Amino acid sequence: INAEYMGTGSINVPYDDFQNQLEELVHAHESFKIVVFYCMNSQVRSPFCASLFLSKLADLGCADPPEVFVLIGGFQGWVKSHCNDEACVEDYDARLWSAIWQATESN
């Protein structure tokens, strides 16, 4: 679950839509073992959404809730650490990831 989009098995839930979809998202993911939230930097949106998700899990009395994490550094941090790791990137294209990495360096 994220405010942006990245990776196989992840879904894109825009931040502005998250609260309206919260109960549906909790029901759809309550049986997962792990749920990871991330956005560009994971400083505000992801922690806030993860907190709402955890609260809703508790409110609904989920018997075996998933572990919930926030990706430290967000997508930018992930790119800086893993953009050249072909094992971490489906359909790896060095030119594309090099351009993304360069863009994150300028921020």
Q: What gap, in angstroms, lies between the N and C termini?
A: 24 Å
In what range is the share of β-strand residues? 5-15%
Q: Report the biggest beta sheet as strand number plus sense, adding barrel if it closes.
A: 2 strands, parallel
Helix tally? 4
Q: List low-confidence stretches.
A: 2-7
Mean pLDDT: 84
Please identify the structural class as seen in this structure: mainly alpha
Query: What's the shape?
Result: elongated
Helix content: 40-55%
Q: Strand order within the widest sheet?
A: 1-2
**Total beta-strand segments:** 2
Element order, helices and strands? HEHEHH
Topology readout:
Elements: H1 15-29, E1 34-37, H2 45-59, E2 67-70, H3 74-82, H4 94-105
Parallel strand pairs: 1-2
Helix pairs in contact: 1-2
Task: Please give a structural write-up.
The chain has a two-stranded parallel sheet with strand order 1-2. The protein has helices at 15-29, 45-59, 74-82, 94-105, and strands spanning 34-37, 67-70. The longest helix has 15 residues, at 15-29. The chain contains 4 helices and 2 strands. It has 107 residues and is mainly α.
In short:
The chain is mostly helical. It is 48% helix and 7% strand.
List keywords for this structure.
single chain; mainly alpha; 4 helices; 2 strands; 7% strand; disordered N terminus
